[in-house]
Design goal:
Helices cover about 45% and strands about 15% of the residues. It has eight helices and six strands.
Amino acid sequence: SESMTDLKVLLEAYSHQSLSIRRNSDHLAENFSQNIHRADFAATSLNKKLCQIPLILVAAGPSLDKNMHLIQKVQSYAIILAVGRAVKPLLAAGVMPDLVIITDGQHFVYGNQLEGLGLEIPLIGLSTCDPKAFKRHQGLRGIAFQEGFDLAERPPLNAGVTTTKT
């Protein structure tokens, strides 16, 4: 019934995430095993440091093009977090992000989004992201252990670090 729409949406989201993890578990486990040895810090260590500063999460798409002038105006007053696909458009507009976030585990992600940019800003990657991001990035690399992925929730692999809901 229509009164159960919210529950249906939640169940579908859970089912989609669960199926995705099961389908890609070997690939994600391999990425995880490479990434945990290359990370410089846990991403959650930034939580307290950044909680008093305005943060702008920049994603790619039509809204980025439409709002680039606003990002340019506020860049000196806020921390700019950019997903990988938004980095090149930001740089082209003269905006240097403060942090880059990589979540996708596909092996082409780093090459398509960040390869050759020579960025030395910190990168935050999910523990299962494209391992080239952690291997080739020139700046500091922070790792985010995602909730719902067994290896990321298992001590001592995550050394007791809080997981991140994705």
